[in-house]
Design brief:
The chain has 123 residues and is mainly beta. The chain has no helices and eleven strands. It is globular and about 40 Å long.
């Protein structure tokens, strides 16, 4: 069971990116999904989470109002729309799956992880 995170890249401050989390061999709709990020030399931190049903979600204070997490179960995908990006958003972003109805902000509560996609915000 593996998740795939994609959509990262280099963007200027104030720009936007949309990250995707997909799975080729299982149905994401059975899992709550979390997005985490890890900058060089720092701990992996929670960014956003969404429950199985899609209407419950949460964000880290640092991204609230700028990032939106959503899921389209028909596409077997979860997205993280990132707007008004800042240099401090630079990190590798990971999606993770939790066999539960509800997301968690704690990384050790997730069962499966993707490989990460790198986001660099720089002029």
């Amino acid at each position: 069971v593996q998740l795939q995170a994609s959509g990262g890249g280099l963007v200027q401050p104030g720009g936007s990116l949309r990250l995707s989390c997909t799975a080729s061999e299982f149905t994401l709709g059975y899992y709550a999904i979390g997005w985490f990020r890890q900058a060089p030399g720092k701990e992996r931190e929670f960014v956003a989470g969404i429950g199985r049903r899609g209407y419950d979600n949460a964000y880290a204070d640092s991204v609230k109002g700028r990032f939106i997490i959503s899921r389209v179960n028909a596409e077997n995908a979860v997205y993280l729309q990132m707007d008004s990006l800042k240099p401090e958003d630079t990190a590798s972003y990971y999606c993770a799956g939790k066999k539960s109805m509800w997301y968690s902000t704690e990384r050790n509560e997730y069962d499966y992880w993707g490989q990460g996609t790198k986001v660099t915000v720089s002029s």
